[in-house]
Design a protein that fits this description.
ATP-binding, binds 5'-O-[(S)-ethoxy(hydroxy)phosphoryl]adenosine, alpha/beta, EC 6.2.1.1, globular, 19 helices, single chain, eight-stranded mixed beta sheet, seven-stranded mixed beta sheet, 33 strands
């Protein structure tokens, strides 16, 4: 099927969706035009839904050349106030903010109202203060998917500390690198996490990380009750330290451009970057995108299956929903435990109305057959969402047909850690959908497709996706390395933000993300730099060189394919394969576990010593017919050896 075969596969919007939606097509068009013609007026109005201690004097003030991005200057606010306190003050304290669904379906749920949330966040905030945390300090949060993770984020925001959340699947080495990079003296963690009844040794991982870098104090939430070592003077149980803290903790008045959080993400080169988001723009962006994209109506139950360790969890479990006064479900477990119907069982149990997940989960569940879905009612569902990677039309149709009974709209939301929130999506009720296409730009977003030389491509075309105008939720810098921020995002195409994604635009102006065009791979929706996996591999004493590429994987979207050259005298065998796999898991974390290790006597290099990754990608994809010109290789015969190696596996 050709790339464009899906262009005219419209899925008509169901009548139900047009009923009371936030936005009709005409409204979208009018609002979109206004948002790009008069961004100051448009964003001032959106920002008005939030509480400000002081209103901003200026709305947009940015330049992409030189790079300097500011929004809502002069404004003072606190995102924790907007996510928590103002709902209580408005008399909605008894509304449920978070529903906690634990890993074990038989374990008790928790329903946390906005009033409870306020108490819990104040308690956590005062505990952090008691430890010595001050405004501007960096606090590392390494937590399971339990409400205390959200409390910790909101508590940091409340006192003006900058949180850096690290996904629980990262290794001690990865934690150490991130703690060191942002000089974080404080860590919040739990004894253990639970995923599919497997215990994740969070505190032990922190201990191992702190053998390499120093931290002043570690706050430990008791969750599983498992045995953990506590270092005298450094480690504190949360329940002990918080026992006598006060019940008052006013929200710090933050400048709009004060940092809110750092989130580490992978790029094509080097170590993960600490993407930095600031307070005002991020607040407005997550509040507005959540409101329009999910068309949230009071009383509804909203569930995003992401982990708070990723940006999706930040923006669409914590800050977006809570600023809107929504009820968000937090799920600790995994989709296939105790059985492949866990998602649907939870949807029915809590009468979920809006469900937001990743294509990798959809594909994995689709493979297990329809019966897991059809045995559940699912009649509460009203809107489905997808995020993290391109969704293939087959998975889209299954999601729409089997999960959505053929009548529920799907929002396929394209965005990135750096964009803070959703950038391209259809809006339910406003837009018709095409399976596999993210759809149209959100308010204020000006996408542009360019060719390799930066020539602007018009009309129906395919190219590299850039964004030409700033939006409130845009990352402001890379923590501690503004030059890297400029180099990574604004130097490939000067004066434009380059996303790193390839993209097609069809005749109807719908955008179809085709995947990364740089050396970043997307494994089960987890973003990973091939350079990171390579660095991990070459640290092994037997490895001389490594080159890592992505290859198409039925469930994960992309898998990790590693070409490895051993030091002379070393033998490749199954034992070493297992050892290298373990090695990468230890260096980065289980999410970076290689799918294929391909031992080769050499890598294909040009005469100047540059590895020709294009060839390695094609071979990993089994595309031997289109290897292109190999004549510039120092030793063209290596290609044959590599192809043979591929065919033998
Ligand atoms: C990919 C996750 C196609 C894309 C929010 C992007 C998508 C990277 C979609 C960012 C989508 C995310 N369709 N591709 N709906 N959503 N991506 O920073 O390649 O973890 O650049 O942010 O995921 O990943 P990140």
């Amino acid at each position: 099927m050709s790339n464009t075969a899906h262009d005219q596969e419209w899925v008509r919007k169901p009548g139900e969706a047009a009923n009371g939606t936030a936005c009709t097509l005409d409204q979208y068009q009018a609002m979109y035009s206004r948002s790009v013609d008069d961004p100051d007026g448009f964003w001032a109005e959106q920002a008005d839904r939030l509480d400000w201690f002081e209103k901003p004097g200026k709305i947009a003030n940015w330049s992409f050349d030189p790079v300097d991005i500011k929004w809502f200057e002069g404004g003072k606010l606190n995102i924790c106030h907007n996510a928590v306190d103002r709902h209580v003050a408005a008399g909605n304290g008894e509304r449920v903010a978070l529903i906690f669904e634990p890993d074990d379906p038989a374990a008790p749920n928790r329903h946390i109202t906005y009033a409870d949330l306020q108490r819990e966040v104040v308690r956590m905030a005062n505990t952090l203060k008691k430890m010595g945390v001050e405004k501007g300090d960096r606090v590392t949060i390494y937590m399971p998917m339990i409400p205390e993770g959200a409390f910790a984020m909101l508590a940091c925001a409340r006192i003006g500390a900058i949180h850096s959340v690290i996904f629980g699947g990262f290794s001690p080495d990865a934690i150490a690198g991130r703690v060191e990079d942002c000089q974080s003296d404080w860590i919040v963690t739990a004894d253990e996490g639970l995923r599919g009844s497997k215990k994740i040794p969070l505190k032990a991982n922190v201990d191992a990380a702190l053998a390499k870098v120093a931290a002043k104090a570690v706050l430990v939430v008791r969750h599983t009750g498992g045995d953990v070592a506590m270092t005298e003077g450094r480690d504190h149980w949360y329940h002990d330290l918080s026992a006598d803290v006060g019940e008052e903790c006013p929200c710090e008045q933050m400048d709009a451009e004060d940092p809110l959080f750092i989130l580490y993400t992978s790029g094509s080169t080097g170590k993960p970057k600490g993407v930095l988001h600031t307070t005002g723009g991020y607040s407005v962006w997550t509040e507005t995108t959540f409101r329009y994209v999910f068309d949230y109506r009071p009383g509804e139950i909203y569930w995003c299956t992401a982990d708070i360790g990723w940006v999706t969890g930040h923006s669409y479990i914590v800050y977006g929903p809570l600023q809107n006064g929504a009820t968000a479900l937090m799920f600790e477990g995994v989709p296939n435990n105790p059985d492949h119907d866990r998602f649907w069982q939870v949807c029915d149990k809590h009468k979920v109305n809006i469900f937001y997940t990743a294509p990798t989960a959809i594909r994995a569940l689709m493979r297990e057959g329809d019966a897991h879905v059809t045995k559940h009612d699912l009649s509460s569902l009203r809107l489905l969402g997808s995020v993290g990677e391109p969704i293939n039309p087959e998975a889209w149709r299954w999601y729409h047909g089997t999960v959505g009974h053929g009548k529920i709209p799907i929002v396929d939301t394209w965005w990135q850690t750096e964009t803070g929130g959703i950038m391209i999506t259809t809006l339910p009720g406003a837009h018709d959908m095409k399976p596999g296409s993210a759809g149209k730009p959100f308010f204020g977003i000006c996408p542009q497709l360019v060719d390799g030389d930066g020539m602007v491509l018009d009309g129906a075309t395919e190219g590299n996706l850039c964004i030409t105008h700033s939006w409130p939720g845009q990352a402001r810098t890379v923590y501690g390395d503004h030059e890297r921020f400029i180099q990574t995002y604004f130097s490939t195409y000067r004066g434009k933000y380059f996303t790193g994604d390839g993209c097609r635009r069809d005749v109807d102006g719908y955008y179809w993300i085709t995947g990364r065009v740089d050396d970043v791979i997307n494994v089960s929706g987890h973003r990973m730099g091939t350079a990171e996996v390579e660095s991990a591999l070459v640290l092994h004493p037997k490895v001389s060189e490594a080159a890592v590429v992505g290859f198409p994987h039925d469930i994960k979207g992309q898998g990790i394919y590693c070409y490895v050259t051993l030091n002379s005298g070393e033998e490749a065998d199954d034992v070493l394969t297992g050892e290298l796999r373990q090695w990468v898991r230890k260096e980065i974390g289980p999410i970076a576990s290689p799918d294929h290790l391909h031992f080769t006597p050499a890598l294909p290099k040009t005469r100047s010593g540059k590895i020709m990754r294009r060839i390695l990608r094609k071979i990993a994809e089994n595309e031997f017919g289109s290897l292109g010109d190999t004549s510039t290789l120092a030793d063209p015969s290596i290609v044959e050896t590599l192809v043979e190696g591929r065919l033998n596996r």
